[in-house]
Amino acid sequence: MLLSNLESVPGHRISQQLDVVYGSTVRSKHVGRDFLAGLKNIVGGELIAYTELLEESRQEAMNRMIAKAQGLGANAIVGIRFSTSNIAQGASELFVYGTAVLVTPLNSHLPDPFPTQA
Fold first, then answer.
1. Residues with Cβ within 8 Å of residue 1, at least 6 apart in sequence
2. What does the alpha-carbon distance between residue 16 and residue 32 come to, in Å, rounded to a whole number?
3. pLDDT class for 2, splitting at 50, 70, 90?
4. pLDDT one-digit tens code per residue, 90-109
5. Which CA distances in Å does 39 have to 17, 30, 35, 51, 64?
6. Higher pLDDT, 83 or 37
7. Could you tell me if 98 and 81 are in contact, meaning their C-beta atoms sit under 8 angstroms apart?
8. CA–CA separation, 84 vs 96, rounded Å?
9. 104, 15 in Cβ contact below 8 A?
10. 116 CA to centre of own chain
11. Domains (ranges, CATH) in the chain?
C-alpha cells in the first residue's frame, strides 16, 4: 500500500478514486505513566511514555485506515492527515484519514518501486 500526504503519488497516475478512508483509536493515560510524566515535567525533558503511547496510537489508527482501503481494492492512499481530540478527561482520540485510490506507474517500462503485495 502506497501512502502519501500529498494529493498524488509521485511517479504514478491516479486511475480511480475509490472513497475516503479513516482509522481511529481512543487511548487513555496510564496512572503510572501519568505520575512519572508529572515528575519528569518538573525537571524537563521528553515524556518518553507519552511519546510511545502516541506512536502506538498512530500506528493502530493507520493500520485500521489501511485495512479499509484494502477492503475497497485500493493500492494507495493519498491526502493523509492526522487529527487529535479530547474525548473525556484523560482520554484522547487519534484520527487519520485519506482518499483510497488505484494508481499505476507513469512509465510502464520501469518496474513499480512499490509493487502491490499479492
1. 66, 69, 70, 74, 75, 76, 77, 116
2. 48
3. very high
4. 778 899 999 999 999 887 66
5. 49, 14, 7, 16, 34
6. 83
7. yes
8. 9
9. yes
10. 19
11. 2-28+54-105 (3.30.110.70)
What digits encode the pLDDT tens for the residues 43-57?
Answer: 666 667 777 878 888
Give, for 70, the enclosing helix (H) or strand (E).
Answer: helix 48-71
Residue whose entry in the numeric block shows the C-alpha cell 492526522: 82
DSSP codes, 14-54: EEEEEEEEEEEEEEE--HHHHHHHHHHHHH-S--HHHHHHH
Give the helix/strand (H/E) hosting 58. Answer: helix 48-71
Task: Determine the residue type at 55.
Answer: E
pLDDT score for 93: 85
